[in-house]
Amino acid sequence: MQWVNISTYDDNEVQNYTGPFYAMSPAREAAVYEKVISRGGMYQENAYKGPPSPERDAVWNKLLEPIDIRVSKDTLEQLNITGLELNDHSGYYGGLNVYHHLHCLRYIRGVMRQEHFHNKPTNDPEFMEHVYHCIDDIRQALMCNPDLSIYTWTWIPGDRKPRPMLDIPQECVNWDKLNSWASDRSFDVFEPNLLVHPELGSSFPVVDRKLQSSALSNETGLAHPRQDFHDHSADASSSDIHIHT
């Protein structure tokens, strides 16, 4: 989406904003809302839109660079959740969910041109389960945070069917500020011995100076950053999540 900034809220308006601020997040401090006009027309171009190319792949990959961030112990306690402490004691392994949604969108984008991104056939159950997960993840995100902007329709000369007008005034978080906040807290999860299982050892071990994980393999196409969210085929169920008491 291409944005045109038409005004910015002042500090008082941000503080008094009545949007979905009930969900605690340390990133709230970086969530500055602005009035913008989205450019969503079918034939309007931007850096992310279109078939795979080295340039487009690069901008999609860059979107996911801050997917892994350090989270403080205080934040976990405020959220009443636990997490995995990094082996250097610099924080806990976390991430903003928006980057997981972007990962899923990028994964689905890869399915559209499978020969470009993936070696897995569409009849591979694990591969397709990841696709279905990503589609439903985005569905839930859109329903949880619905875009309430109004769009209308118009007539196009020579066409009896109307077309939607999708250059829409909206209220959006300033992405650059939010992304900068995440980038300041991001880390390379593949750094040797940074993420260590208490019984099985390093999550991404290095042998003969080579990472022993498919997570950095370019052979599957959607490689770094974060190789399709670290090649996880399933997430932790609610029964696997421990709560602070």
Please count the helical segments.
8
Measured between the Cα atoms of the first and last residue, the distance is 42 Å
Mean pLDDT: 77
What low-confidence regions span 5 or more consecutive residues with pLDDT below 50?
A: 1-17, 213-225, 229-245
What would you call the structural class?
alpha+beta
CA radius of gyration: 20 Å
In which order are the strands of the major sheet placed?
A: 1-2-7
Encode the helix/strand succession as letters.
EHEHEHEHHHEEEHEEEEH
* Biggest sheet descriptor: 3 strands, antiparallel
* SS strand fraction: 15-25%
What helical percentage do the residues reach? 25-40%
Q: How many E strands?
A: 11
Shape designation: globular
Written overview of the protein:
One of its GO terms (biological process) is mycotoxin biosynthetic process. It comes from Aspergillus nanangensis. Belongs to the ustYa family. The chain is of the alpha+beta class and 245 residues long. The chain is built from eight helices and eleven strands. The strands form five sheets. It has a three-stranded antiparallel β-sheet. Strand 8 and strand 9 (201-202) form a beta hairpin.
SSE diagram, text form:
Elements: E1 2-8, H1 11-15, E2 33-39, H2 54-63, E3 69-71, H3 73-79, E4 92-94, H4 97-112, H5 114-117, H6 125-144, E5 152-156, E6 159-165, E7 167-173, H7 175-184, E8 196-197, E9 201-202, E10 206-207, E11 210-211, H8 227-230
Antiparallel strand pairs: 1-2, 2-7, 3-4, 5-6, 8-9, 10-11
Helix pairs in contact: 4-6
Protein name: Tat pathway signal sequence
Family: Belongs to the ustYa family.
InterPro entries: UstYa-like
